[in-house]
Amino acid sequence: MPVRSLVAVLVLVLASAPGASPTRAQGPRVIEITAERFEFWPSEVVVAEGEQVELRLRSDDTMHGFRIIGAGIGAGTNVLIPKRGSGYVVVTYIGDRPGRYTFECSRMCGAGHNFMRGVLVVRPQ
Ligand code: CUA
Question: Is 122 near ligand 1, meaning CB less than 6 Å away?
Fold first, then answer.
């Protein structure tokens, strides 16, 4: 009997371990960004130098685009943000160079398209 209850306790401990999963804690920080005519929210994103983040971009209306000017992934590419209700697109980004980088919508989405931008700040360590 005592052995049996000890086994039960061990199983409980193991079962609760994934809740504090170290693999999840080590994954990139997720930053949710919503695009909506004609802005991004948040419009300012701050990451630390060397930090890897996962930008999850979704739209609250039509299809938009996303690119980070002059910095790593997304620069010069045309990442499409699916229209509302169609999920999100993921951009993995590493803040390898401190500075302020403009990100913008890269798909013509209406009259305010050219104003649809934000800033990505990479803070030096
Ligand atoms: Cu949103 Cu162009």
Answer: no
Q: Which CATH superfamily is domain 3-123 in?
A: Cupredoxins -  blue copper proteins (2.60.40.420)
Note the pTM of the prediction, 2 decimals.
0.76
Q: List, in order, residues 6 or more apart from 70 with CB less than 8 Å away.
A: 101, 102
CA distances to 2, 41, 46, 92, 117 from 38, rounded to whole Å, are 66, 10, 21, 23, 8
CA of 34 to the centre of ligand 1 (A): 12
Q: What is the dihedral of CA 45, 46, 49, 50, to 10 degrees?
A: -50
Return the ligand 1 atom nearest residue 113 CA.
Answer: 2
**How does pLDDT run across 32-85, given as a tens digit for each residue?**
999 999 999 999 999 999 999 999 999 999 999 999 987 655 455 679 999 999
